[in-house]
Amino acid sequence: MKTYTPPTSGLLLFHGLTRDDAPDRFWELDRRLPRWARRSNPIVRRHLGGFWKASLPAMDELGWVLIGQLLFLLPGLFWQSFLELISLAGLLSMFVLPVGLVYYVRAVVGITHSAAGSIIAERRTQMLDLLRATPYPLRLILLSKAAAAVWRQMDNLSLLVFITAGLSLPPIVIQQATLYPPEKQTPIPQIMAAAGLLASVLRVCLEPLMAASLALVTGALADFEISATSWASLVMLAYAVLINLPRLLPLTWPVRLMVESVLPVVLPIVIIGLALHIAQRLLQRD
């Protein structure tokens, strides 16, 4: 089996690391990521400090949690009352998910602060001009800065991913069973609940990177961290309101599927691309 070769010892020493400090698991996790998101990327590393030891969510365990949750929906295809049993677990979720929401908001605010602050500091010290003289294109530099901001909150985000995967299903089932009674419209509530669960997990992964990308734009415009962080946080708040408002409308189930499970996954990807493009244009203008 071919082993992964870590970065050169010179790069490790440049970052104050030794091979003993960076276990094999560190390099194995990084190898699964794009180059701009790896902690061994020097642009990412210079913003991490002690946060370089943060771990990604254990994907194998996460996959089994999701599979187990989705399997709970199968008996509801043949025994409609089974969904009511699942909804009883929503009592636990009602206590835990609000706590997860608080941690999520704190993580997003921390990400916007880190991303905006990194750009403002680079502009103030003119370090951005030096970075642009390296072989790294500006877009990759911006992506790496966004990734560094997310890495600084990775421990909290990893926990939130598992909370979302393990506890989101009961509230989603309650919502969908109310809109589409299973005794009349099976398997629609099962399909909607499964799609909603997967979308919720993906949102926890995508929206932090979106927040970092938006903070790069505000950091390119503002001269103070508090202003850039506040504007990026307000944009995220407006996004959260707008993405959830259509749920209140009377929609057919295919349209509701698009609104609740497809758009919340597609829109962050589009916004990330647009935000990076705008930030790149603003910085090139300077």
- Helices and strands, in N-to-C order? HHHHHHHHHHHHHH
Shape: elongated
- Enumerate how many helices there are, as a single number: 14
Give the amount of beta strand, in percent.
Answer: under 5%
The Rg value, from CA coordinates, equals 21 Å
Share of helical residues: over 70%
Number of domains: 2
Task: Record the SSE blueprint.
Layout: H1 9-14, H2 24-31, H3 42-45, H4 59-71, H5 82-88, H6 90-125, H7 127-132, H8 138-151, H9 154-167, H10 169-179, H11 182-185, H12 188-221, H13 225-244, H14 253-285
Helix pairs in contact: 4-9, 5-10, 6-8, 6-9, 6-12, 6-13, 8-12, 8-14, 9-12, 10-12, 12-13, 12-14
Kindly describe this structure.
There is one protein chain. The protein is mostly helical and 286 residues long. It has 2 domains: 1-32, no CATH class; 41-285, no CATH class. Helix content is 73%, strand content 0%. It has helices at residues 9-14, 24-31, 42-45, 59-71, 82-88, 90-125, 127-132, 138-151, 154-167, 169-179, 182-185, 188-221, 225-244, 253-285. The longest helix has 36 residues, at 90-125. The radius of gyration is 21 Å and the shape is elongated. The relative contact order is 0.12.
